[in-house]
Amino acid sequence: MKVVCIGSGNVATHFSTAFVAAGYELIQVWSKNQDHAILLADQVGAQAISVEADIDLHADLYLIAVKDDAIPEMVQVLAEVDGLVVHTSGATDLVIFPASMKNCGVLYPLQTFSKTKALDFSKVPLCLEAKNERVLAVLKKIALSLSPLVYEVNSAQRRILHLAAVFACNFSNYLYAIGQDILEKNQLDFEILRPLIMETAEKVQHAFPRDVQTGPAIRNDEQTLSKHKELLTGMPELQDLYETLSKSIKKTV
Amino acid sequence: MKVVCIGSGNVATHFSTAFVAAGYELIQVWSKNQDHAILLADQVGAQAISVEADIDLHADLYLIAVKDDAIPEMVQVLAEVDGLVVHTSGATDLVIFPASMKNCGVLYPLQTFSKTKALDFSKVPLCLEAKNERVLAVLKKIALSLSPLVYEVNSAQRRILHLAAVFACNFSNYLYAIGQDILEKNQLDFEILRPLIMETAEKVQHAFPRDVQTGPAIRNDEQTLSKHKELLTGMPELQDLYETLSKSIKKTV
Fold it and tell me: Counting beta carbons within 10 angstroms of the beta carbon of residue B47, is it exposed (0 to 12), middle (13 to 18) or buried (19 or more)?
């Protein structure tokens, strides 16, 4: 199966590598920036291109992994191809593809990618949506060749997943960062907090977070709560955040 | 070395098991509740007791792992022993021990424990404080026999660690729980979010959270931010939380 990768960022890079590992032929990597295209294309043995007109229109699969606001333009470019065209965006509905396009869908990876960190693609949940059942069946086969974690998810559900991911991933990371700040301000090394962060995530791999909530708020430990608020004197934003989150946790009891 | 464990909760259980695994002799487990004492004592081959007067006053080490507000009473009971007395509380200062007690200190595990989840004790950071250098040296040896992650931390720093842990662990878990709620309300399985939670924690094991922040807020992606706020219509508390956290993240750019 011949694949063209549209984009050269984190998502494009991890997908391309996974496709090659699964035996697909990466024929082209397109990026607005030729240098970026070369960087990824060289890794996966593909041709690097940066001109839209150079895109091979006879591939079997086109993976659009560009910024959300650049998707419509790329869809336009690929409007006439026979191959399967998929985008990888959590926040973009299937209707971004015009009605005339039949062989298209969504292949949304619910995972956080960084170029600097290797990632086991078998741990990437892939959320699928397609124009019709026939295309869905094809897309499912492709997805299962990359990861066993394959889910059928419609556009409305995908928006919800993206929102839940912001809470569970982006916001959690921000709370880790607050931990880092608090420690550094007090000459303590972030290193000391890392095992706790790891265990907190591991705990919910086989349990539900609602069932394993710990800490002073859920215990209604007012003494510790007020000690902590005192420690945050001079940091009104963190004080507010501490109070808001603690109040919410108390309500869930 | 003969150890008496005061307490039978999560911390007492994990410490007792680790002590036994490291070759210490657990001679007694004390708990206010005899049934709880028996449950743990049976696991570690110790005598279960629930009467303070039954505590063997000739042990080498007393581990106090009870609720914070019960610590003063247990310190009182152990005021005259020759053995080393340590408490395990993040929020309790060293001065909880009277001046007359010289052989005492703190052995605070910066980790989240649940009885139902096995935990590799070598991944538990142990934070030490002691009355004097001699005691600290003894405590350090003991700590290193349980875990390689040993840190000297004074009472003021320990309070800070505890605060940072609330943000990085308790509050993060609460954000996972919000993710769970949002998914369940939309007939989506929490399972799909688990790999992302794991990868988010793994990412900061070799990087700093400040350097790997992702998501719509850090990208200033106003379109997604307002879409998400719209999805949270009817959930004013989550809307507020979303806005507060996003604003804070934007400020860090």
Answer: middle
